[in-house]
């Protein structure tokens, strides 16, 4: 029987529950156990595909094409495993299954009720994931904060599982301890309240991860222990850190892994976090930096800059930079400002490499095209991702092939030169407003042309990468683009679709229709990001 660890959050959102979950997984994995993780999102949305990245953060995509929460990305990066649709549960998914089953007469005439039928479906899904993946531990992160109406049914599922398998279920509460400026002291009361709320749901936490700006001191550990009914050694200090990759190491300073194993009566094997420790050393000590500019649009929410919408790209840049023992400096460059004032594009000279990431809708598109043109002409290393590739093609068609009105039909449906367009079978679906079936999602094969930058980067000629887009390079224009020097470096063999383009006579100009960022791992940087950063470092040594 696998073991189940539920992770819930108290006090407020955004304190790093996802990373805490991934870190617990990392520790158990480092002790020789097989781990998987499930994210529960208490939304009615069936998946994250319909959510705005500014509101919800990045939409992560798995190999099987599930559009899910960015925490799945954290799990994949920390645990170095590929997850599937079984690792993602939303309220919408659960209700959809139960309702479909009811319509199919599968409840044999019984009254179908919120309790226990909804929690039962949640439990069924969790157990199914455990069975398919044949693992030792399933970590289940319950989204939201305890006390919310929205995640109650998931807590109910957790409680029911504990009742049925008392020896196989553990509860972790990730709480937050504020240090209000006017008081200057770390307060435990919100955590006490959070535990009460959890108790109301019939759950007693076994371990409390105390997130705070600073480490927890003894008096506070004691206080939480007494008021929250948890052994003192099970109150784990989780202070802010410079890099999230430090967290497993910090947890291990308090022997969290051994404590969990002891509770389950499992043998404590020696820990082996050596590679991870080496990485954290590099992260902390790297002196020389690499300056990368990200020309995007999903940054601003009110007065705050939101990095979450591009989290996998940011992590991929970091992984590749650390590989060269450098420290990344990432700059947010709003594409719209180049639209309003094209002269500003000159500032791109201040960066060693430029990324134009994916996106939907016309806002900022012309600004991104200006940025790409500048990188092409000024030989600044450039990496285009998804929309970034499509716009690199539009720019090249307009400014090198002389097709002045070239565009993607996403932005101009009557374009004279629709160099980026949807495939005919998608057109039919779009006409009927069946948007659901029109995205190319998940992993597809790509054949790489030998003797290209991509071939050298991957050191392979057949690869698989993840997609999330509707539009493609229109094959009618392939020849004219190639004639003018664009290299079609990667092709999907089944549908003959261009997946990677490159330019010669440029230190690094590569753009991909897929999203390489989803597959970068801290200890295994993605080959294209690695080569991009290598070119950026070279650019740095030329210009400084
Ligand atoms: N909007 C473009 C498309 O749908 C690009 C999508 C993306 O960048 N993820 O094809």
Describe the largest sheet: 9 strands, mixed
Strand order of the biggest β-sheet? 13-10-14-15-23-22-21-18-19
The CATH class name of the largest domain reads Alpha Beta
When the domains are counted, the total is 2
Number of helices: 19
In whole angstroms, the N-to-C terminal distance is: 59 Å
Can you tell me the CATH architecture of the largest domain?
Answer: 3-Layer(aba) Sandwich
Task: Look up the CATH topology of the largest domain.
Answer: Rossmann fold
Task: Name the ligand types.
Answer: glutamine
Low-confidence stretches: none
Give the DSSP E fraction (strand runs of 2 or more residues). Answer: 15-25%
Q: What is the SS-derived class?
A: alpha/beta
CATH superfamily of the largest domain, called what? P-loop containing nucleotide triphosphate hydrolases
The counted number of beta strands is 23
Q: What is the C-alpha radius of gyration, as a whole number of Å?
A: 25 Å
Mean pLDDT, rounded to whole units?
Answer: 92
| Backbone shape | globular
Percentage of helical residues? 25-40%
């Amino acid at each position: 029987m696998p073991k189940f660890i539920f992770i819930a959050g108290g006090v407020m959102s955004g304190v790093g529950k996802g990373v805490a979950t991934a870190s617990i997984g990392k520790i158990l994995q480092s002790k020789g156990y097989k781990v998987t993780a499930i994210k529960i999102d208490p939304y009615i949305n069936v998946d994250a595909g319909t959510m705005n990245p500014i509101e919800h953060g990045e939409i992560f995509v798995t190999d099987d094409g599930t559009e899910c929460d960015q925490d799945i990305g954290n799990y994949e990066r920390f645990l170095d495993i590929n997850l599937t649709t079984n690792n993602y549960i939303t309220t919408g998914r659960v209700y959809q299954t139960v309702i479909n089953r009811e319509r199919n007469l599968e409840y044999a005439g019984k009254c179908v009720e919120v309790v226990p039928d909804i929690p039962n479906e949640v439990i069924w899904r969790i157990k199914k994931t455990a069975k398919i993946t044949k693992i030792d531990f399933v970590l289940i992160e319950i989204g939201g904060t305890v006390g919310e109406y929205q995640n109650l049914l998931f807590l109910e599922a957790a409680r029911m599982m504990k009742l049925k398998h008392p020896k196989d279920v553990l509860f972790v509460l990730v709480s937050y301890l504020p240090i209000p400026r006017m008081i200057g002291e770390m307060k435990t009361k919100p955590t006490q309240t959070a535990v009460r709320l959890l108790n109301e749901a019939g759950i007693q936490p076994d371990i409390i991860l105390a997130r705070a700006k600073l480490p927890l001191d003894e008096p506070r550990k004691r206080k939480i222990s007494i008021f929250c009914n948890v052994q003192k050694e099970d109150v784990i200090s989780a202070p802010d850190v410079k890099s999230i990759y430090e967290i497993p190491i910090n947890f291990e300073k308090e022997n969290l892994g051994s404590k969990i194993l002891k509770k389950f009566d499992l043998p404590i094997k020696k820990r082996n976090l050596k590679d991870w420790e080496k990485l954290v050393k590099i992260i902390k000590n790297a002196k020389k930096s690499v300056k990368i500019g990200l020309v995007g649009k999903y940054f601003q929410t009110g007065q705050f800059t939101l990095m979450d919408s591009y989290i996998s790209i940011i992590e991929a840049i970091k992984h590749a930079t650390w590989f060269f023992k450098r420290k990344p400096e990432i700059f947010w460059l709003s594409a719209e400002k180049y639209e309003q004032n094209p002269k500003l594009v000159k500032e791109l000279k201040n960066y060693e490499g430029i990324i134009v990431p994916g996106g939907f809708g016309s806002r900022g598109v012309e600004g991104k095209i200006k940025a790409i043109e500048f990188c092409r002409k000024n030989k600044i290393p450039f990496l285009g991702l998804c929309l970034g590739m499509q716009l690199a093609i539009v720019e090249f068609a307009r400014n090198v092939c002389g097709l002045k009105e070239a565009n993607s039909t996403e932005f101009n449906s009557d374009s004279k030169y629709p160099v980026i367009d949807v495939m005919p079978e998608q057109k039919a679906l779009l006409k009927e407003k069946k948007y659901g079936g029109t995205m190319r999602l998940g992993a597809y094969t790509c054949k790489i042309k030998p003797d290209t930058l991509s071939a050298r980067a991957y050191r392979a000629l057949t690869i698989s990468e993840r997609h999330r887009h509707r539009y493609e390079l229109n094959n009618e224009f392939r020849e004219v683009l190639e004639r003018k020097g664009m290299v079609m470096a990667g092709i999907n063999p089944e549908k003959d679709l261009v997946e990677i383009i490159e330019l010669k006579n440029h230190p690094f100009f590569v753009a991909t229709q897929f999203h390489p960022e989803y597959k970068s791992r801290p200890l295994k940087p993605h080959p294209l990001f690695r080569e991009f950063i290598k070119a950026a470092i070279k650019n740095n040594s030329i210009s400084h």
